[in-house]
């Protein structure tokens, strides 16, 4: 197989569906699903996914570059890897999704919608991920899932990570890696959700994070130099090399409320150009939906992923507090 991305976009399986290099064995499992195993003893298991949203192309190009280097034998591999291009049909169309947002369908939520390609794709990704996690070669093998995205809107933090609800402490080396990847902020969920990373964390105890690495742009228009820190950190992770030096620790935010679009009456009281991490003062009206109104409840809250056009019943925005600021206020 010459090129993981092009092979996936072609819609055809490669003539050879498995092979070996001086450093690894690879196997094509399905369109956009490739498994790689080091010839030596693996140190951990990694799921690396991109293209869950078909218009977020820079992470797809980054992942494809790294997989290409591994397949050509230009880089050693230290870990078991499941590489995933999440929604090939949407990638071909250059659209976020065709009928349903795949990143709201995990954890069996695909069963709540009509039978369609994206429901079947979410199921297939769940099956492939579960099989991968359960193929461990030794009893204790750290599991990480990094799901690579870019955001629809501009952001006061250009690169940030969203971590799913997790009752366990996050491993220090996982947070260290996110820092080395150049993330400016980390957002910690406080409720379960239908994302791919929540599926891995909740069901398989994987340290997982959705990485938002910039603005969503079409193939061929990305300035990949803006993603250099993340690409270098991924290359170091795959090859077992030392991580690049981090500039500074990311700021930390916690989700305190979710704005949900319940009906066609929904109105989001934010400008269409409102950036992620824009601050709102206590008491500000954020949205209304018939009798339901959403207000800022803390002294200051920051908005994330505001989107009034989501399907009914889905998240139209998250409100955050900055952890350090909240801690300082409580200590006064």
From TrEMBL:
GO terms for biological process: L-arginine catabolic process to L-glutamate; L-arginine catabolic process to succinate. Binds 1 zinc ion per subunit. Zn(2+) binds at residues 53, 56, 149. Its cofactor is Zn(2+). InterPro entries: AspA/AstE_fam (IPR050178), AstE_AspA_cat (IPR055438), Aste_AspA_hybrid_dom (IPR007036), SuccinylGlu_desuccinylase (IPR016681). Keywords: Arginine metabolism, Hydrolase, Metal-binding, Zinc. GO terms for molecular function: hydrolase activity, acting on ester bonds; succinylglutamate desuccinylase activity; zinc ion binding. Belongs to the AspA/AstE family. Succinylglutamate desuccinylase subfamily. This is Succinylglutamate desuccinylase. It comes from Pantoea piersonii. The lineage of its organism: Bacteria, Pseudomonadati, Pseudomonadota, Gammaproteobacteria, Enterobacterales.
